[in-house]
Design a protein that fits this description.
This is EngC GTPase domain-containing protein. The chain is built from 11 helices and 10 strands. The protein has about 325 residues and is α/β, with parallel strands linked by helices. Among the domains are: about 150 residues, P-loop containing nucleotide triphosphate hydrolases (Rossmann fold); about 70 residues, Probable gtpase engc, domain 3 (Ribonucleotide Reductase Protein R1, domain 1, Orthogonal Bundle). The strands form 3 sheets. It has a 6-stranded mixed beta sheet, sandwiched between helices. Bound molecules: guanosine-5'-diphosphate, magnesium ion (MG) and zinc ion. Guanosine-5'-diphosphate (GDP) binds next to α5.
Length: about 325
């Protein structure tokens, strides 16, 4: 029953979902999914439900911190509407002057990053503290130290041999290897328990197309420095894009990421055009639009009724079991 309902609303059971499990067989460690509770968020790819917090991790060197890449990750992270922390790893590889200059630069973007070193175990307690009591997802490019950080946090949690079989079956190394291999396998996400009652998932990044589904008018929400500039002020036009309109509260120059803002605006515009072409008037019957948080417009295909026919009880039960075993 639940399965049929889930299918109808196009839901799969995701990592992070709060579910009700019944008919539990403790010996074989099996149960049946009776219900999936309301999901607060489902913004990420690979999909993780009920994420409270994003930890955006980059490194200062090896690979070098690159403002354009960092901006793209940050904008995508901001576009989910989930609270985020920016941490910059490998800070032992750069000089004090370089560190100060990044600090000042990123303050101009309205970020106060946490500088850490997983290798030298510096400021990791602060990260662990931020992760307590919530479900976090760590995002960032390859090589910045995501898996290393998770390993560290995991070893903090572990230590004693307890009944942790469910967790131990999924090693961090495995996830990161899978994450790099291909589109299909990046969907294997596991939530790892961290000390203080939180959970942490490692993902290789976001689905690129999510970003481009931002509306032009919503892009400025994803730039904290613009948010700061228009705080308590009003642009003359309600749908101001802040690109030099008369009476705009946003400065046209003097802030570093203005060119990135323009660039992303242009990409959104191009994407919107091609989407209109694709889903315009002709195929409108097959899709509907769902406008989510912060004006992110999502195309939702209409359901093919035949495809979502009820399955036999027996078949459904088998599917639940195999899903749980997965
Ligand atoms: N110098 C230095 N290297 C680090 C640090 N943290 C991780 N690394 C190294 O960076 C490389 C990539 O780390 P990994 O955790 O696999 O990154 P991921 O791709 O983001 O999961 C590994 O060789 C790590 O040993 C650090 O704080 N300093
Ligand atoms: Mg990794
Ligand atoms: Zn404006």
């Amino acid at each position: 029953m639940v399965r049929a309902m889930l299918k109808k609303v196009q839901r799969r059971v995701l990592v992070g979902d709060k579910v009700l499990v019944g008919s539990i067989d403790w010996i074989d460690r099996r149960g049946m999914l009776m219900n999936v509770f309301h999901r607060r968020t489902e913004n990420l790819d690979p999909p993780v439900a009920n994420v409270d917090h994003l930890l955006v991790l980059f490194s200062l060197d090896l690979p070098k911190l690159e403002p354009n890449t960092l901006t793209r990750f940050l904008v995508e992270a901001e576009s989910t509407g989930i609270s985020l922390t920016l941490a910059l790893n490998k800070f032992e590889l750069i000089t004090q002057e370089e560190l100060e200059s990044w600090k000042i630069r990123l303050r101009g973007w309205n970020y106060e990053p946490l500088f850490c070193s997983v290798k030298n175990k510096l400021r990791l307690d602060e990260i662990a503290f931020m992760l307590r009591n919530q479900t976090s997802v760590i995002v960032g490019p390859s090589g910045v130290g995501k898996s290393s950080l998770i390993n560290y946090l995991r070893s903090r949690f572990g230590g004693k041999k307890k009944k942790k079989r469910w967790f131990e079956d999924q090693s961090v190394g495995e996830i990161s290897k899978k994450g790099r291999r291909g589109k299909h396998e990046t969907r294997n996400v596991s939530l790892l328990p961290v000390s203080g009652g939180g959970y942490l998932a490692d993902t290789p990044g976001f689905n690129k197309h999510k970003l481009l589904k931002l509306k032009e008018q919503s892009l400025h929400f994803c730039f904290p420095e613009i948010r700061k500039m228009i705080e308590g002020k009003k642009c003359e036009f309600k749908d101001c894009l802040h690109i030099g309109e008369p009476g705009c509260a946003v400065k046209e120059c003097g802030w570093e990421r203005y060119p990135y803002y323009l660039q992303l605006l242009e990409e959104i515009r191009i994407e919107e055009k091609s989407r209109l072409k694709k889903y315009g008037t002709k195929t409108e019957g097959d899709v509907r639009y769902k406008v989510g948080e912060m004006g992110v417009k999502q195309v939702v295909p209409r359901l093919d009724p035949k495809k979502y026919k009820r399955e036999s009880q027996k078949k459904m039960k088998q599917k639940w079991i195999s899903e749980l075993e997965d």
